[in-house]
Amino acid sequence: MFITIDLFAGAGGLSLGFMQTKKYDIKVAYELNPAMQETYKKNHPGVDVFGDVRDADYSKIRKRYGEFDVVIGGPPCQGFSNANRQRNHAISQNNSLVKQYIRAILELKPKAFVMENVSMLRSDVHRFYLCKDDQELVDGGKIETSNTELVLLEEKFVFDGAMEVVKSKEIVKEYKWDDIDYLELNVIYKASQNKNKFKGVLEKHKGRIIKIAKKHVCLEKGDTILSAGYEAFRAMLAYYEGNIEESEIRTLIEPAIMYQRMISKAEEIFDNDLIVDSYNDKVGLIANIRSYAVFDYLKAKLCDDSEKDSYVISSDVLSATQFGAPQKRMRFVVMGIRKSITDKVGFPEGKFKKGPFRTVEDAIKDLEDVEPVFNVSDDKYGIKLCKKTGLSDLAQSLSDTNILYNHIITKTTDVAMERFMALEQGQNFHSLSDELKTNTYTDISRTQNTIYLRLKYNEPSGTVVNVRKSMWVHPTKNRAISIREAARLQTFPDSFVFCGTKDKQYQQVGNAVPPIMAKAIAEKLAIQLSKALDAKTREDS
Prior knowledge:
With 541 residues, the chain is an alpha/beta fold.
C-alpha cells in the first residue's frame, strides 16, 4: 500500500479512484470548501481532512503520519482570460495554488505525484506573471518568458497623470473604493447591457446604491478619478430622483468603473510583487510584464537535474470516454516519479480508446422512471429503489445500493418548461425561437452551447459542469438533470453521497474527477512504482 495525501481533494473523486485499486492508503486530504469537506469525510471516513493547504506544515504532517509515497491532487488554475470578472482582476489567485501543490512535493518528497487539471494548463492562456520570488529561476535561464501586455486602462479613458497613479502603491491605495461600493455599481454597469432586465436591477439595488452614493457625492470632485466617481454616483441619485433616463446611466458611470478597474489591477501588481519592465500610454495604459507557462514553471521546479530529489515527469491530455465514462471530459494530467527510482513514466491506455463509447443512456436510463425530489430536506432518507434487470454494465457497476440519494432537481418555472418542451435531444438555447429567448441572458449571442442542452441518449455527454447553472435537460423527460444523474455521468457509484445545499452538490459533481479515470491512472502508477522499486531493491542487494 502506497501512503498517499490528496491536496485540493474536492468531494473526493480522485481519492475514490485511487482507493478503488486497493493499492493506496490515503491518510490525509486538504480541502477548503466546507461542503466539499463534509462530502469527503462522509465517503472517506478513515481519512483526516484539513482545510487551507496554504497553512499546511508538512514537517508536522510527516512527523504525525510518516513518509508519504504519493501526492495526488487537482489544484485550480485559471488563465489570464478567466480571472475574476466581477472586479476584472488581472490575476487569478487560484494560480498561486499550483505553487502550493509544488511546495507540497518539494517538502514531502514523495516517490511519485499525480496532478490533474483542465486540458488548457499547458497552453499560453495559463501563465504566471513574473514576480520577485521567481526572478532567480528566470535569470538562471530555467524558464522561457515572453512579454505580456497587461492593459490597465483603455485608450479613450487615459488621462494626464494616469501612469504616475499606477506606479505608486500609496496613491493606488488612496483611490481604491471599498469593494462593496465597486461591486454594487458594477452590477448596474453590467446590467445596463440588457434593456429588458435593467429597470428591474436598478430597483433591486436602489437602497444600497443610494446609501453608497450619498457617501461619494459628499467628496470634492477634485481630479479626474475623483470627479468620475462623483459624477457616477451623482448620476445614480439623479436617476432615482427622476431627473435622468435609465438610457443615460451607462455613459455616466462607465469612466468611474474603468478607473476602479485600473486601480484594482495596479494594486494586484504591488500585492503580488510583480516585476513591471515598463509602462506605456500610447495605445491605452499598459504594463509590460514578463510571463511564463505554468507547466514550464512546474518542470523548472521539479525536474532540476542538479537536485537529488528531482522527478522525471510525463504529461498527457486524457479523455474520460476512453476509460469508460459516458462523458467527453478532457483533463490534463501530469505524473512524476523520482529520478532515483526510474527514468520513465507512462500513462494508461483506456480499453474504450477506439470505442464504442459508453453513452448517457448507459449511465442513467434505469433512473428514468424514478421520480426526483426538489429539496435537500426531502432527500433525508433517500429513495428506495425496486430491483431492476437488463441494466447496462455501467449502470450495474454504479447502482451499488437500493437507496438512492441526491436524486434532486431544481423546480422548473413555466418559462423554463416551455423551453424544455421545445427542445429535441442535442438541441440547446440557440435552437429556441426568438420568443423563448427573451428576458434571459445579457448577450444572447454569447450564450454557450451547453446552456439549456437536452442530452442525447445515444452519445456520451459533454463535460459535466454545474448542470443546474447550465440548465441541462433530461433526454426524454421535461425536467432538469438531477444531481445523482450528473454523478452517474461522472461515474460516481450511487453509494457515494453528496452533502450541502442543492447548488453546492451540483457544483461538487461538476468539479470532480471521474473516479473511473482516476482508477486507471492509479493502477498504471502503482504498476510502474512497484516494478521500479522491486528492480531497485534487487539492484541494491
